[in-house]
Specification:
The protein is mainly alpha-helical. 54% of the residues lie in helices and 8% in strands. The protein has 15 helices and five strands. The strands form two sheets. A three-stranded antiparallel sheet has the order 1-2-3, with helices on one face. Strands 4-5 form a two-stranded antiparallel sheet. Helix 7 runs antiparallel to helix 10.
C-alpha cells in the first residue's frame, strides 16, 4: 500500500487520482504529491511508517509545513485555504487517512519497526493500553469507545466517525470451520462486561481468570501490528475533536463540566506520553450527577461571594473559600461589618442572633 501527502483541496486531489487511475488525460486538476526530502523522485509513495515517523515529531500542521517550505521543490504553500491531505491507494481504491502530529509513542514505533510486523511491548505502550481500558470501563466515556451510536448528544456524523475509526471483526472461512478475529471494540466490550460483573461480586475467582485472558488478547491486539496501534490513536484524535465540538455547542453548564473533565483526561495522557508531563491524569472523569453537584456548589459559592461586603474577605473567599478566611483574618476583621459577611459564607448559622454576639468595636 502506498501513501502520499498533498497540499491542496480534498476534491481536487481525489478527482486527480481517480482520473489518473482511469487514464483520463489531461487530468481534470493538476496536482502533485509532496516530497519529504529534496532527493525524492516525483510522485514518490511512502509507507505509513515513513510518514508517521516524520509528522509525529511536529507539534501541528503549521510547524510541519514550515519545514516543508525549505525543500525547494515544494514551492506551493501560498494558499491559506489548503491543508495537508494523506491518501492511501490499495487495489485500485483511494482512501483519505488522518495525518498524525505530536505523538512520541507512535513516532517511536513508526521509526523502530520499519521492517517489522509486530510491536514489542514497552512500559509506555502498556500504559497507553491501560488508559484505553479505563476509557472502556468508565460510565461517562465507555459509550464513545464501545457504542458511539448510544452517545445521543453528538451529531450522527460524529457517531459515524467514532464508529468507523476502529476496525470491525474479521471473519475467515476455512474448509471445516469459521474463524472470527475480534476487533478491539469487541474485546473491550467483553472486558467491560467482566469488570461490571466483578463489581457486582459475582464468582470473583472465575471472573478474574477471564479478565486476565481478555487483557492478554487486548495487549496482543496492540502488538500484532503497527496499524492497530495507529487506528486507536486516530480514534483518540477524533474523540478529542468530538468532545471539543460538544463543549462549544452546548449551553448546559453541567454538561460542560463533564466534557471538561473528559478533555482534561485526554490532554493529560497525550502530554504524559509526549514527555511534557511526568504524571498520568490525576483528576476524575465526572458523571452528570457528580458534575451537577459541583455546579450547584459553585452557584451557592457565587451567591455567597456576591453578598460579601468586606473586600479582604471577598478576595480570600474567592481564592480559598471559608478555610482561607479562617486562616488569614482575625476575629475583629471578620466581624468589622457585623454578622452579615460571616453568615453569607457560612461561618456562622443564618439564624444566629446578633444580640447574643458582642462585636468588638475598634
Amino acid at each position: 500500500m502506498g501513501y502520499q501527502l498533498w497540499y491542496d483541496d480534498y476534491i481536487k486531489v481525489n478527482s486527480y487520482l481517480r482520473n489518473k487511475q482511469k487514464n483520463i488525460y489531461p487530468y481534470l486538476y493538476k496536482c502533485k504529491p509532496l516530497k519529504l526530502n529534496s532527493s525524492d523522485q516525483n510522485e514518490k509513495k511512502y509507507s505509513i511508517k515513513q510518514i508517521d515517523s516524520i509528522t509525529c515529531n511536529y507539534k501541528n500542521e503549521e510547524e510541519f509545513i514550515q519545514d516543508l517550505k525549505k525543500i525547494s521543490e515544494n514551492r506551493i504553500f501560498d494558499n491559506q485555504e489548503y491543508s495537508l491531505i494523506l491518501t492511501s491507494e490499495y487495489r485500485g481504491k483511494i482512501r483519505n487517512q488522518q495525518v498524525i502530529y505530536n505523538d512520541k509513542l507512535l513516532q517511536y514505533y513508526a521509526s523502530s519497526t520499519q521492517n517489522k510486523q509486530k510491536l514489542d511491548i514497552t512500559p509506555k505502550l502498556q500504559e497507553f493500553i491501560d488508559y484505553i481500558k479505563i476509557l472502556a470501563t468508565n460510565s461517562t466515556t465507555s459509550s464513545y469507545l464501545l457504542n458511539p451510536y448510544n452517545v445521543t448528544d453528538i451529531s450522527e456524523y460524529d457517531q459515524v466517525s467514532l464508529d468507523l475509526a476502529l476496525g470491525k471483526d474479521v471473519t475467515k472461512f476455512g474448509d471445516n470451520n469459521t474463524i472470527v478475529k475480534p476487533s478491539l471494540r469487541t474485546l473491550l466490550r467483553h472486558y467491560n462486561g467482566l469488570i461490571s460483573s466483578l463489581n457486582l461480586g459475582e464468582e470473583q475467582e472465575n471472573i478474574m481468570e477471564d479478565i486476565r485472558k481478555i487483557e492478554k488478547q487486548i495487549q496482543n491486539y496492540f502488538t500484532d501490528s503497527y496499524k492497530n496501534l495507529r487506528e486507536v490513536i486516530v480514534w483518540e484524535k477524533i474523540y478529542r475533536d468530538v468532545l471539543e465540538k460538544s463543549f462549544e455547542n452546548t449551553t448546559d453548564e453541567v454538561k460542560r463540566i463533564v466534557l471538561t473533565s473528559q478533555i482534561n483526561q485526554v490532554d493529560s495522557e497525550i502530554n504524559y506520553r509526549n514527555g511534557i508531563s511526568d504524571n498520568h491524569f490525576k483528576g476524575d472523569v465526572l458523571s452528570y450527577s457528580d458534575a451537577e453537584a459541583i455546579y450547584l456548589s459553585k452557584c451557592d459559592n457565587d451567591a455567597k461571594y456576591q453578598e460579601i461586603t468586606n473586600p479582604k474577605m471577598k478576595e480570600l473567599y474567592e481564592w480559598g473559600g471559608i478555610d482561607a478566611v479562617r486562616e488569614y483574618m482575625d476575629i475583629d476583621e471578620i466581624y468589622q461589618n457585623g454578622l452579615d459577611d460571616a453568615i453569607a459564607i457560612g461561618l456562622i448559622p443564618s439564624n444566629y442572633k446578633e444580640k447574643n454576639f458582642k462585636v468588638k468595636k475598634k
